[in-house]
Amino acid sequence: MNERSWDRLLKSIEDGLVVPVLGPQVLIDQDNKGSLQAQIAHQLLKFYNDDIGSDALPPCHELNAVVTRLKQNHPIQDLYGDIHDAIEKLMPKNEIDIPQSVRQIAAITHFRLFVTLTPDDLLARSLRTRCAVNEVIHSPYLPTSEGSDLPTDWLSRPGEVYLLYLFGKSRPAPMYAIHDEDILEYVHNIIARGSHVPVKFFDELQQRNLLLIGCNFPEWLSRFFLRLTNQRRLSDMQRKREWLVEALRPEEDLIYFLRSYSEGTEVLPDISPTTFIAELHQRWLARNGAVAEGEVTPAQAEIIPRNTLFFVSYCRAPDFPVAAKLVASLKSLGVAENEIWFDKSEIEPGQDFRERILDGIRSCRYFVPLISNAADQLDEKFFRREWHEAIDRGKSIQGRTFVVPMIVDQAYDPESYTRVPREWKDELHFGHAPIGQPDEQTSALLKKLIRAERQHGS
Hints:
Radius of gyration: 24 Å
CATH topology of the largest domain: Rossmann fold
CATH architecture of the largest domain: 3-Layer(aba) Sandwich
CATH superfamily of the largest domain: TPP-binding domain
Distance between the termini: 38 Å
Helix content: 40-55%
Order of helices and strands: HEHHHHEHEEHHEHEHEHHEHEHEHHEHEH
Number of helices: 18
Strand order of the largest sheet: 3-4-2-1-5-6-7
CATH class of the largest domain: Alpha Beta
Shape: globular
Number of domains: 2
C-alpha cells in the first residue's frame, strides 16, 4: 500500500466505516511457536497419541486436517470437547502474553464492531482492557435463551464494542465450527436466515467497509462471504470497499474473479497479517495522538468510572488481596475493567476522592460489599460510609437486586458478623467467595446478573 492508500483506509476507520474481520493467521504466537491453530491441532493429536509421522499438515489448515484424520476412528462429537480443552490449555494466562497483533488491533478505539472467525476469546480479552465488550455468538445450535444480536442503539453507547463470533465460540459441546464442513453449515445457516443469525449485525456489515485480515478462507468461501456482506451483487458495488490481507497468496482464480467483478476489493498478498496490523496500529497512533500500549496519559489517570456494573466495596487494610481476586473473577466472567469500580489504593481516600467514590455508589448497577471477620472488627473505616450510602440508595430501588453482599472468609456464616447491617441479614442472600474466588452458586448468580444486564442492553 502506498501513502495515499493508507490515508484512505485510516480516514475510513476514523469515520467509523470499517469493520475488521480477523482470522486464524492473526493468532501467531510471539514466542515463534507458530499459529494458535497449528498448536491446537498438535495438542489434539497428543490427546489421541496419534503420531502423524511424515505427513505434513497444510499451513493455515492444520486443524481441519487433524479433525478430518481423527474422525475416521473417533466419534466426532468428542472432538469438540477435546478441542475446547486444547484451547483452554494453550490460552495465555496473562493479557500481556496474548499475540501482539491481537492487542494492537484491539487498541484502535475507532473500531466499534469486530468479527472473529476463531472460537477463542483472545480478542475479547484484549478489548476488555479498554472497554466493555458485548459478545454476539452465531451458532445454529445455541440454546434459545443464548441468542443475541446487535442492539438498535449501539452507536449511542460510548465505551462499548460488539464482537461477532461468526463460526461460534469454544465450549465443550458441538456449538462451534472445527472443520470445513462445519463452516459450510454455518454459512448455509446465514444464507437461509436460520437459527440465531444476528441479522442486525449483518445489516451493519453490509453497509460498512470490511478489513479482512488473515481470514484464510477457502476460495469458494471468499466469494460467498463478500457477497453475504454486501447488499448488492459484487459487480454493482460503488460505495463499499474491502481490503483482503492474507499470509498465503490467494488463488489466482480468486484474484482474477475479484479484479473482474469486485473492483472495490483490494487484495494485499505481499504483506503478512501481523506486519499489516503493526503498521496500521503505528500509523493510527501517530494520527490520533494516542499513546502506545501500556502507557497512560495524565487525563486518563484522572478518569473515575461512572455508571459501572459492579462497585466493589472493601476494607483496604485486611481485604485488598481478596478484593483484587474477586475483580479478576468478575473479569473472567466477561465484565470489562471499566465496568468495575475498584479503588486500588491501600490507604484511606482524601476528601475530594471520597465524594467521587460516593457518586460512584449512587450511579452503579450493583453494590458488592466484601465481608470478612477482619473487617468486622473495625468500625471507623471509610468502607462503612460506603455501606451506609448503599443502604440509603437501596431504599429507593424497587423490584431488582442492588446490594450483593459477599463473604470472603473460608467459613460461610452470615450471622457471625456483628457489624453487618441488619437489613442485609434480614433481606438478602449472602454470596460466598472464599479468598476472593466465588463458589459455584455465587458464580451462577453473578453470571445471571451479567447476562440480564447484557440482554437488557440488547
